[in-house]
Amino acid sequence: MMAWIYLVIAGIFEVVWASFLKLSEGFSHLGWSVATIIGMVLSFLFLAKATHQLPLSLAYPIWTGIGALGTVIVGVMVFGDRLNPLTWVFVGVLLIGIIGIKLTTN
User: Which residue ranges does UniProt annotate as crossing the membrane (predicted)?
Assistant: First the structure.
């Protein structure tokens, strides 16, 4: 159970560092740049902890999926990104894929 918690935390930090990367404006703002790097390190550390118990073939796609979905949500809600309806369909497909991977594993 802890491995799944670590994986979710790793995915959240994936969203955090990607958001901070946007705010760093190409690493031109020191504070946001440092926050980006800290988020990256924490994301990788929690992913590494999760892969002690979960297979990489399961952990990695879920980790990247959480990061992708979370970043889409942050992009739309925080940064005002606009996505067309077809893009939302594919975001939904991504979510279904992540849930499917989780549900079909032992």
Answer: 28-48, 60-80, 86-105
Q: What is the pTM of this model?
A: 0.90
For 27: left if phi > 0, alpha if psi spans -120 to 50, otherwise beta; the answer is: left
For residue 65, give both structure tokens.
């999926």
What are the angstrom distances between the C-alpha of 16 and each of 19, 41, 79, 93?
A: 5, 11, 13, 23
The domain tally of the chain equals 1
Q: H/E element holding 95?
A: helix 85-103
Q: Which range of residues forms the domain containing residue 29?
A: 2-103
pLDDT digits (tens, 9 = 90+) for 29-63: 999 999 999 999 999 999 999 999 999 999 999 99
